Sequence to fold (64 residues):
Amino acid sequence: MADKSRFVIVTYQRTPGHWRAAITPDSHSGLFVRGRTTTSFITPDDSTSESAAMFEAEQIIRAI
Fold:
């Protein structure tokens, strides 16, 4: 289970009523990131609300 505080979650509305969340690892190590790096990834399914998209992103982080 990954620590939620190590990620930044940004929600956005693709079309009216269709929300997704972008999840980006939050790196505080300066210019260099050690190990495998993922720039960001998007929740796979549309959600009906911003809070639902945020919840889905948090579930994905917990699964990591």
User: Anything to note?
Assistant: The chain has one helix and three strands.
